[in-house]
Specification:
The protein is of the alpha+beta class. Helix content is about 30%, strand content about 20%. An 8-stranded antiparallel beta sheet has the order 9-10-11-12-19-16-15-14. It has a 7-stranded antiparallel beta sheet with strand order 20-21-22-23-24-27-28, with no helix packed on it. A hairpin with an 8-residue loop joins strand 20 and strand 21. Helix 8 packs parallel to helix 10. The longest helix is centred in the N-terminal third of the chain and has 21 residues. The radius of gyration is 28 Å and the shape is globular.
């Protein structure tokens, strides 16, 4: 009864029908031979066999696209050549792991690291989450997506070496023989079946001029039909109505398009389109943020709908204006949070995979995807300079992509932004290669069961130009004890209170009771400063809820000031952490400041932290992609029961010099002072900030104040200084765990003053917001 409670009649109907279908399959399987698809059967004609449209890029000979990519993007050619050669030796690169030995052809039911062999029985009788049964299902399924075969396909288009195509045919024949429909672990997940089908569609198009063995091509197309039938029967309508469902719908749309003469093709396309149109409205907030609060799944959604749009456009299928607009919003969010190097922060779960790795770079590198989105949507402001063209060439065609690549750069007409519904705050200086970008997670914990969320409320990442400074620790794995470690509060750039995660992980994709209400935030923007103020609740289980307030001030082109304060009944202590990127090293300058340098020893930034202890520099593993593990340094600061901390980041000068930050012991408010090219700085925080004499125009009760003396602002002669201030936020928790705050009204609003001719005048401040 517990499992039934809260479910609609339609959900019960759908789940019941799927369970009955699976049972009938098992009963029928006892009497039907488990034979692979083989024999003398007529080939199913494919869409492009007679020159039919596929995606816009498919209007060009695939060999022409491959040669253009090899000429303009030698990194792709080198990577694909290396991976193709490795596959002949039985080694395949999967997710973030080093190349793994899988065999040639692979052992399709064997997980490569643990060696666990999944059972050969009906798919519904296999518990894919039981590591003792299948090992790491994510790793096993990644092999069976067959995306690694795109590498030898690309190489064959360039060199026509028979060994490349022989490998592809041998692996596909082996898979068909070893994976009869409905039997084995590779028929469990409808999403994995859909992604494999998409890969096969592309292989059939890319290699349409290759010397296929007729029987193999026939069996492959017949198996595509079996793939589509399985997906259609077992859609994740209620099981995982997120990117699982949209990915399955896209696979159905692909097969219905490519197998255009199948009697089921139009039904598959209609059903898939209806799902995709409906899911877009549910899964993408009005501000463009994907509802799972995970940037990798945001990327997946942008890819899924980009493929849908291009495939629909090429085949005369109508896509709604609302779906097109939401896709543009998805891409706008990606562009906004991307660093100058084109990398998105890994907020929430990092799946580690790609929908279709036509560009083999890591998923957090979104340059190629943004270029394809810009070409498809005619949105040139999405393009990041020097974006690799490979992905866009395949999807959008060479001509339309090159029109964007050669045109004068266009940048978005916004900088700072608070995507309010999705709770994503971005502070950025500009859009060039030197811009700094800070991204703060300030929204709901997640959606549905919050399976891909992390306990990362108010966590912040920071990139200084092309250098990633503070990064998310990543995900590493979806199984084992490290699954929960990497998604707990202690693994994120935020305040951990009483050595306990603000939300407690349970099973790999679930949390214990006590999911907090959404965090709240405000972003403010002016010509000289930008700011963020946000408050999040936590620790709802156990009767001692907490609240955490984070305020961020940033001077354009300069330093960052971050003030954290928490509250919890009988709080003992806390720890504030800042995870450094792996290529960076920290060295103590004083008890409260460290120097951050890159791998070549050049200065990156000076970091000051004030709390209840000296800064600790510790080493721990981070994961830049699921399965990847590397050691990196982390800055830790203990705070006492006041739960208050101050962090200041001063980027290195152009010559690599680092600022010296000191506490001004001569004044009662004990501010932090330093000098850089912008002038002499003083930051006051907490109760002592209210002791400082301020101009009459300054906000009352400000407790985070940043003054800059001697600035020389171009075009604004006469300024003798600047002040940026944030008033204190009301921060407390009641017995019902509701966070009481005025952050969304006046307490989060930044004030900026400029001294002109001896008079302090307020400067204009905007609140950029979407959703």
């Amino acid at each position: 009864m517990t499992r039934i409670r809260g479910r609609s009649l339609d959900e019960l109907r759908v789940r019941g029908v799927q369970a009955l279908q699976a049972r009938l399959e098992r009963i029928g399987g006892r009497f039907l031979p488990r034979l692979p698809i083989r024999g003398r059967m007529p080939a199913t004609e494919l869409l492009f066999d007679r020159g039919g449209a596929f995606v816009p890029g498919a209007g060009v000979d695939p060999a022409v696209i491959a040669r253009a990519i090899a000429r303009l993007d030698p990194e792709v050619r080198g990577c694909f050549t290396e991976r193709s050669d490795a596959a002949e030796r039985g080694r395949v690169t999967l997710l973030g792991y080093e190349p793994l030995w899988v065999g040639n052809p692979p052992r399709w039911h064997r997980e490569a690291i643990s060696g666990t062999e999944a059972p050969r029985r009906h798919w519904s009788r296999i518990d894919h989450l039981a590591t003792a049964v299948v090992g790491d299902h994510k790793l096993l399924w990644e092999l069976n997506r067959h995306q690694y075969l795109l590498a030898p396909a690309f190489c064959w288009l360039l060199d026509r070496e028979p060994r490349r195509f022989d490998l592809i045919q041998a692996h596909l024949e082996s898979w068909l023989a070893d994976n009869p429909p409905r039997h084995g672990v590779n028929w469990v997940s409808s999403l994995e079946i859909a992604y494999r089908a998409i890969t096969w569609c592309w292989l059939l198009w890319m290699l349409r001029e290759a010397p296929w063995r007729p029987e193999l091509r026939t069996r492959l197309t017949r198996s595509l039909e079996a793939h589509a039938r399985k997906v259609e029967r077992y859609l994740s309508t209620y099981y995982s109505p997120n990117t699982h469902l949209t990915g399955e719908a896209l696979g159905l749309f692909y097969v219905g398009t490519v197998l255009c003469h199948s009697p089921h093709a139009q039904r598959w396309r209609r059903k898939a389109a209806a799902i995709l149109e409906s899911a877009m409205r549910r899964q993408v907030y009005p501000d463009g943020v994907h509802f799972e609060q995970a940037s990798q799944y945001h990327r997946y959604t942008a890819e899924i709908y980009l493929h849908y749009l291009l495939l629909a456009n090429a085949t005369g299928w109508s896509v709604s204006d609302s779906a097109r607009a939401s896709l543009a919003d998805l891409f706008a969010v990606l562009r906004t949070m991307a660093s100058a190097a084109g990398r998105m922060p890994l907020l929430g779960d990092d799946d580690g995979g790609l929908l279709l790795p036509l560009d083999p770079r890591a998923p957090d590198d979104v340059r190629a995807l943004l270029l394809a989105g810009a070409a498809a949507l005619q949105r040139p402001e999405l393009v990041i300079a020097a974006a690799p063209p490979s992905f866009a060439y395949w999807l959008c065609g060479i001509e339309s992509t090159d029109r964007l690549r050669v045109r004068t750069a266009v940048v978005p007409n916004w900088l700072d932004m608070y995507f309010a519904r999705g709770g994503l705050a971005v502070l950025r200086d500009g859009w060039d290669s030197g811009t700094a970008v800070g991204v703060i997670d300030a929204g709901p914990h997640g959606a549905l069961s919050c399976g891909h969320s992390h306990a990362d409320a108010l966590a912040m990442t920071l990139a200084l130009g092309r250098t990633e400074l503070f990064i998310d620790r990543g995900t590493l794995t979806y199984t084992g004890p490290e699954r929960n470690e990497f998604r707990s509060t202690g693994s994120h750039n935020t305040l951990e209170i009483d050595a306990t995660s603000s939300v407690i992980p349970a099973q790999p994709f679930k949390w214990l009771a006590g999911i907090p209400a959404r965090a709240q935030g405000v972003v403010c923007s002016s010509s000289h400063f930008s700011s963020f103020a946000g408050i999040a609740a936590g620790h709802l289980a156990g009767g001692r809820p907490s609240a955490h307030c984070r305020r961020v001030l940033h001077q354009r082109g300069g330093a960052w000031v971050i003030h954290d304060r928490g509250v919890r009944e009988a709080a003992r202590a806390g720890v504030l952490r800042w995870q450094l990127a792996p290529h960076l090293t920290a060295a103590a300058l004083t008890a409260s400041s460290v120097a951050i340098r890159d791998g070549a020893g050049a200065g990156v930034a000076a970091v000051f932290m004030r709390g209840a202890s000296a800064i600790r520099i510790v080493a721990r593993d981070v994961s830049l992609r699921l399965g990847h593990r590397i050691s990196a340094q982390c800055l830790e600061l203990e705070v006492d029961a006041s739960l208050e901390a101050l962090t200041i980041i001063v980027p290195a000068g152009r010559d690599g010099s680092l600022a010296s930050l000191e506490i001004d012991e001569a004044r009662a408010e004990r501010g932090v002072v330093w000098s850089d090219a912008a002038g002499r700085h003083r930051v006051l925080s907490g109760a002592t900030a209210q002791l400082a004499p301020l101009p009459a125009a300054a906000p009352a009760h400000a407790d985070l104040i940043w003054s800059v003396d001697g600035v020389d602002v171009a075009g604004e002669a006469g300024h003798g200084g600047l002040i940026a201030a944030l008033p204190a936020a009301v921060l407390c928790v009641r017995g019902d765990a509701q966070v009481v705050t005025d952050v969304a009204q006046h307490s989060g609003r930044m004030s900026v003053l400029a001294n002109s001719g001896g008079r302090w005048l307020p400067l204009g401040v905007d609140e950029p917001r979407r959703g």
